[in-house]
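#structure-requests
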Amino acid sequence: MSKKVVAEHHQANTKHSFAIRNRAEFEALIQNGDRIHLLNLEGSLFFGTADQVAVYIEQLCHQGANWIILDLSAVVELDSTGSKIMAQSIGRCRQRGIEIALSVRPNSMMSELLSAIGLLEVIRQERVFANQNQALVWAEDQLLAQILTKEQDAVDLPLEQVDALADMKEAEIEKLKKYLLWDRVSAGSQLIAQGAQEDSLFVIVQGRVWVELASSPQETSQTVSIICSGRLLGELAFVDHRARSASAYAEGEVAYWRIDYPDFEKLQEESPLIAHKLMQGIANEISMKLRISDRLIDYHLDQIRW
């Protein structure tokens, strides 16, 4: 396979999306992520090269792939013959129950070309994503829905199952709740505003939160991460009391517990052991996010204070 066609090939057991998931989901992706394949294509797709990609996809199907993502961001040309070959390959995959998704920049020349030649209709619009991270989130969600019980999507996740609070006993969790505020918000609600001088900590127990960053007031904000149920939001600002450097919005309905720093100071005075365990959990959360920062650097998350 020419490197000009498939520049890179990744599997989701080693390359994850920018979604910050709970420990059980991360472990499931490591164990089963080889069913998701990401192909970064580059160069031109015409009769010869498109046929090579089709053969490559066919081999992945025989190897047990369930989801295949084609990143076309570096593809510069696609002719009608190449499009026909790709459409046939996608059709054969669908007949086997294998899903194909495309990653292509919106409003790009390639996006307009795919629409003009009808390939977007073949792939279906809901399988076309603005970047490979969003495509990976979709594929990971599909995989996790198959292999994990998703009851937590319908009900609030118990605090005992939040990774950052795993070292607390049930009685300590109950005592901690006295210092927490619970809330549920609708889709699109803003939890954090970029530039705000706030130091609240959020514990997401249902739904997901999109983290968006604008490099400057004139720039359109971009989604740089997704915080899933069971994870913390706002932990760095809670610790260093600096302004938020990203905004956070509810993807759908989101439920969370929140602790404001003045209430944490009361917790320190009245229950120092519980406060210590909470700070240790925050430290573990920060450590975990730093360990996956190599997948987030492209989105400038090294500058973000969640």
